[in-house]
Amino acid sequence: MRKRKKIIKRRALLLIVIVVLAIFTLFWLNKPNNLQNKTIEILKKNDAYNKEYDKEYQDIKYLDIDDFSSKVNKYLSIGYTGKEINNLFKLSKKNQDKLLELEKKDITKFVNIKNFNIDNLERYNEYLKNNKYDLIDIVTYVNINLDKDFYTETKEVQDPDSLLVLVNKYNHLPSNYKPKDIVYVPGAYGNEVPFRAVLKDDFIKLQEAAKSDININLMPTTAFRNESFQTTLYNNYVSKDGKEAADTYSARPGYSEHQTGLAIDLKNMALSNTRLTDDNFEWLNNNAYKYGFIIRFPKDKEFVTGYQFENWHIRYVGKDIAKVIHDNNLTLEEYLDLYVIEY
Ligand SMILES: [Zn+2]
What we know:
Layout: H1 2-30, H2 34-45, H3 54-57, H4 68-78, H5 82-88, H6 93-100, H7 121-130, H8 135-143, E1 155-156, E2 171-172, E3 182-186, E4 192-196, H9 200-214, E5 218-222, H10 227-241, H11 243-249, E6 263-268, H12 278-287, E7 293-295, H13 302-305, E8 313-316, H14 319-327, H15 332-340
Helix pairs in contact: 7-8, 9-12, 10-11
Bound molecules: zinc ion.
Zinc ion binds next to strand 6.
């Protein structure tokens, strides 16, 4: 008897605990959290509380940003819900401000993509229809213009002397650009090869490392090329192979990275015809970044760079950036979009 009573007592106690917990949970779930309360509190304080939006306000988490109250009301007037507004606040300030001027957009799936640019929203959606890349790559590829044909809507670069200058099939140098700090170093075949002074010390260190690590003489065949030389070169390729083929391996005048003075084509002097062996390249691929150089046209990124894989063409960007590009398997285009440009 006593034992039974004890069991009943225990069960009753358990039931009470469950009921209390359930009530507490329900209460907790329904209660607007502190930040949501704070939203209404701040709106009222700023004289921006609009009774009509009260229900939406309750979904909006307060953020300590400039113009919080006016932004919230503006987004609500455009037609965004409170929950959608929390998402808008995850975007960059530039994007947030641009959205204030536009009619309602569906950007939910992009909110956590850091290089999302509202200006490109329609292009992302269009590119998404025809390509199977992850959304995060879709954004980068559209930002770097891969949804447009090469050599269409091209731009002149604004910073031709920058170590990060981007010259590709969408970006060309100012007419007849020539860097001011050209120096000459001994090249293959006894030539003196010109490139920018800023990369000279690191290039010599790269040559020394190649010699001591795998015992090869890495020599430049060509580095800086002026526009008229590039014109001759490109025209020769076109008459030999046709324009379409030439475009896959040679740049049009003004669109060659060699004209920046930051690109070098390499040769292993022990080889008569080919530039580098696979083993030479493997070493270069694993070590060039330590001296500030990147493999500019990698094998798996031909659709990004618009060029066939070139195991001999390196580009100087400086050590810190070369390491990021190397470690993350990026091209210069992708690096600039992901790490430099602020959207
Ligand atoms: Zn080259």
